[in-house]
Amino acid sequence: MHWLTTHTGMPRARRATFVAALAVLGLAVAPSSAFASGPSISGTVTNGSVAVANVEVDLYDPYGDFLTSSCTLSDGSYSFSGLAPGDYHVGFSPSTGASCGVSNYVDQFYDARTGGSATLTRASEVVVASGETTANVDATLSAGGTIAGTVENGASQQLTNIEVDLYTQQGVLVESACTAPTR
Asked: Which of the pair, 114 or 10, is modelled with greater confidence?
């Protein structure tokens, strides 16, 4: 079992004890924003020719646990600051359902070897050193496709509120949608 840590690198249980001890001694504890200038990860997201704004960028610890997310700016840039030194994974989620609003691009993870990985387990670790910015953790997104159609009964009548699921060739659920009435 590994300790879950805060951005200070100290396990949460020990950090809480440490903060309580400082309070008993009458010492102030710096807010987490005081660490915002510490180690960071930054990069840019494009579609191969232009910057892509509003892409959700997700940060994971080395065990694959989600830590936080950010949205790319109008120039496609993003950054995570105030990080503890260590290894991280970075994911890019521009698909429907992501919090930032861009769609019709394929999700991927940062992979320094190939330019992008489809899975977290194949992603490159991003190493963050003390006091350093790990820059150029970039992504070039591939355009996604669109699947459309209708669900009908045997009498060629369109059916509504039918769940349609999309799976990979390996049988992994990608996305679900419900049929709606035609207008």
From this structure: 114
